Amino acid sequence: MPSYRLHYFPESGNSYKLALMLTLCGQTFEPVWTDFGGGVTRTPEWRRDVNAMGEIPVLEVDGERLTQTAPILLKLAKQFSRFGGETEQEQFELLRWLFWDNHKLTGYMATYRYFRTFTPSPDEHVLKHFRRRLDDFLSILEQHVQKNSFAIGERPTVADISMMAYLHYPADETGYDWAVSHPAINAWLGRMAQLPGWKSAYDLLPGKRLTHYAK
After folding, report:
1. Strand pairing category for 4-8 and 30-33
2. Per-domain residue ranges for the chain?
3. Are 189 and 167 in contact (CB under 8 A)?
4. 4-82+199-204, which class in CATH?
5. What is the pLDDT of residue 80?
6. Does the keyword Transferase feature in the UniProt annotation (predicted)?
7. Which residue intervals of the chain are DSSP H helices?
8. For residue range 158-184, what is the model confidence (pLDDT) as tens digits?
9. Phi, psi at residue 41, to the nearest 5°?
């Protein structure tokens, strides 16, 4: 079996995507906490030695460093024959929602949550802009999971793992109470949490936490 080392920090939803995927596939990994808040990923040394793109997460597989969460999820899905598309049509739908999530949902929620919760004086105009965009994207997901149990139909895929990661964090971080604002999303998150082996990010990813500023 391959050996895995995951470079992460607990608040990183992208790190959580890989930690959860490995866990749901019955794999263990060595956690490598990274001082993102201290700026280590922006140092020339870290970009030279760990990830030239300057991003977290990094997954080491038998010593080979892999970066960019979406292709790693797809690679793991193929390797373990789990959470992938079983037909050409399913694979297209999976990629459609995965790319939408990366560009829209994860992209905006990760940034909104970080500025809102983990920066001392966020610009209210910036937060308002991001919130408005997020509300639009969330309305799309809300309508979709009203009609579908998961992203591509009746079973979960890596698209669901990707979409749910940043949404599952506590309400005082995201600024959303899903049960009130988006009941279908809340129910979908509940279905994801029922998967055998599911754990939250803060249960899977130990280590020093970022300073929390949101009230």
Report:
1. parallel
2. 4-82+199-204, 88-194
3. yes
4. alpha beta
5. 97
6. yes
7. 13-24, 44-49, 69-80, 88-100, 106-118, 124-147, 158-165, 171-174, 178-181, 183-193, 201-204
8. 999 999 999 999 999 999 999 999 999
9. -70, -10
